Here is the input.
Amino acid sequence: METCIKTALKISGRLEHLDINLDWFVQLPSAVFSCKTLVVLKLAIIAPKNISLVDLPLLKILHLKSVRSFKCEDLKRFLSGCLNLEDLEVGSGLAPKSAANTSEKFPKLLKLKRANIHTHLVPLELIKNVEVLVTDRIYKDDLVFDLHNLLQLELTRFNLSTKWFEVLELLKHCPKLKALVIDIYEV
Here is the structure.
């Protein structure tokens, strides 16, 4: 599989879209993280081999779902090499919560318009300029800034019995909100 991916990257020279869903035991080659022509990168059920260098200058869409052994530091490093992102999706199944996930250490994603976040690894302040936000998490600590550009908010798998106050507080910070979807679940 590694050889196949490396060959596709090498032969094409203009590979723009890569959507990979691998078995946990197949490692993703590091060459993927320095493919300067990629615009869309979607990774699911993967184990990155080496992400010490990420250089994806044209990347606009990044979806990460169930990335094995992916920690907060890995996500910061990854996003630092993708500063033109417009669409970010980070799914659950990543590493356990890290105490070092403050937004100051994350790069500024100034072009980000859409975020689908289902993990504690991404502080909401990092995505505060988006127009569309889908998430299953809100914490009191996240409610210290306004979401000035937010037009659409979708709260998924949400337990309103324990998070009602946070939802009301969040709505106060969304002056342009036009669409709200709340998918409620009870425990």
